[in-house]
Amino acid sequence: MPSFFSFRDAKSLASRYCDIRKKAADVSGVIGRHKAEIVRSAKLLVEFEAQIKLSGISIDEISKRGKGIRIASLRNAGFSSVADVLNVDPQSLTSINGIGQKSAFTISRAASLVAHEVRENTFVALSVD
Q1: Other C-beta atoms within 10 Å of 79: how many?
Q2: What is the pTM of this model?
Q3: Contact by Cβ (8 Å): 62, 111
Q4: Which of 34, 69, 83, 100 could be cross-linked to 55 through a Cys-Cys bond (beta carbons 3.0 to 4.6 Å apart)?
Q5: C-beta atoms surrounding 55 within 10 Å
Q6: What are the tens digits of pLDDT across the range 58-88?
Q7: Residue range 30-42: average pLDDT?
Q8: CB atoms within 10 A of CB 100
């Protein structure tokens, strides 16, 4: 048998409905803020992992990305990994014997290409545990 609502009951239900919708919107906003923070943190973690990988990649990989790169000059100057090259600006590379401005930019560009490839292939697994 159907139930009948009084005006007061209908008004109370409508008020509860509005309260629930407001709470749902609040929760949605909190979730959005947390999601943005999680995405930002995940990107930082990927960058951290990529830096670790780049520290383990020999400068020999740079020579595969550009012609005429003087790896021996870099090695003699104390560079051993792609990360080492990425941590200096191209202008600083010109202070190395045998590396001019054009070579410095070629080296930096080649190191950036390696870094891009590493970042594109670096993934992190996030767990709720």
Answers
A1: 22
A2: 0.70
A3: yes
A4: 83
A5: 14
A6: 999 998 887 778 789 999 999 999 999 999 9
A7: 85
A8: 12
